[in-house]
Amino acid sequence: MGCTLSVWSTLYDSVVPNGSDVWIGDRRFRVVKELGEGGFAFVYLVKEMPTERPQERPTSYVADDGQYAMKKFLIQTEEQLQLVKQEVVSSTRFQHPNLLPLLEHSIITVKDKHVSPQGALDGNWTREAYFLFPVYREGTLQDAISQMQETKDCFSAPEVLQILKQICGGLLVMHSSDPPFAHNDIKPGNVLLERRSGNIKAVIMDYGSVSPARRKVSTRKEALVLQEWAAEHCTAPYRAPELFDTPSSCEIDERTDVWSLGCTLYAIMYHVNPFEFAVNDKGGGGSLALAAISGRVQWPTSPVKSYPPSFHDLVLSMLNTDWTRRPHIRDLCRTVENMISTLPPEM
């Protein structure tokens, strides 16, 4: 893991132009193109360039074609800096084939590109962070779902279970740690996909919302604090009902992720979040929070593809509004393995 905290006198724009070079630790990368942006971060495809003093690294750090994904954060507040540092810690805490590894990271101090009325460069000093990851060229599970919506295609039943199995495997590492941690933002947009020799690999990414999973709530004030935290860190359509309306006396645990995974499983099959589907089915006049709190799951009347009843049963078990009755991720792993082994060949 390479990390640097340094001062650069060079002036930087928020967007890195194609062809620019960026140093992360002692490694130099050239920006090939921008892949996306969101919040205060940009993601680029980069290619590693030779340096005067190349250093040997474990082969797991080196891409065959020298290309990686680079995520750039614009850090303008102390709170944003702490969030970036927290993501670094979370990214290095867990290792699993279905958890995206952070290969290198660098936090630098730069000066805003600002010109005073007198023509002088007088920008404020600020910070930027650069994270280096393996690149998954097929994008996210959400990208695949969106494409399937357009082509009216669907994942096969074995593919659904293989994707679910791998997400469960990654979450099992987090939930089994001591103390248990929750991802807190499981959704199709935070799962990367890659097809290799006909097989699908699914990898969980984005650890910015990872936190200790078990929270004891004893007062209404504590409940409201948790709700506010969830509103900032947990994507609404995939947020568990206990995070929309937290009881004043309860113990929240890692099964908030199981709810999110249940919503994700529904979306893998039917291309839409179950509670967004319920709201849209009412002409868009319903409340997403109320739909989630009710826990009522509607199924498409004319789906592009039909799945076995056991798939629906699994979704419903994960979307139990009483989180103490939801399965733990270890139980889900066993259930999915059993479903894979008993799936009829024609599926």
Structural class: alpha+beta
Q: Please indicate the percent range of residues in DSSP E strands (runs of 2 or more).
A: 15-25%
Sequence stretches where pLDDT stays below 50 over 5 or more residues: 1-12
Q: Termini distance?
A: 43 Å
- Biggest sheet features: 7 strands, mixed
Radius of gyration: 22 Å
In words, what does this structure look like?
The chain has two domains: 5-133, Phosphorylase Kinase, domain 1 (2-Layer Sandwich); 141-342, Transferase(Phosphotransferase), domain 1 (Orthogonal Bundle). The chain is α+β, with helices and mostly antiparallel strands. It is globular and about 60 Å long. The relative contact order is 0.11. It has ten helices and 13 strands. The longest helix is centred in the middle third of the chain and has 19 residues, at 157-175. The chain has helices at residues 78-93, 141-151, 157-175, 220-233, 241-244, 255-270, 274-281, 288-294, 309-318, 329-342; strands at 5-12, 21-24, 27-38, 41-49, 67-75, 104-112, 125-133, 181-182, 191-196, 199-204, 211-212, 215-217, 250-252. Helix 3 (157-175) runs antiparallel to helix 10 and helix 6 (255-270) runs antiparallel to helix 9. The model is unreliable at 1-12 (pLDDT under 50).
Topology:
Blueprint: E1 5-12, E2 21-24, E3 27-38, E4 41-49, E5 67-75, H1 78-93, E6 104-112, E7 125-133, H2 141-151, H3 157-175, E8 181-182, E9 191-196, E10 199-204, E11 211-212, E12 215-217, H4 220-233, H5 241-244, E13 250-252, H6 255-270, H7 274-281, H8 288-294, H9 309-318, H10 329-342
Helix pairs in contact: 3-6, 3-10, 6-9
GO molecular function, one term: ATP binding
InterPro entries: Kinase-like_dom_sf, Prot_kinase_dom, Ser/Thr-specific_kinases, Ser/Thr_kinase_AS
Organism: Klebsormidium nitens
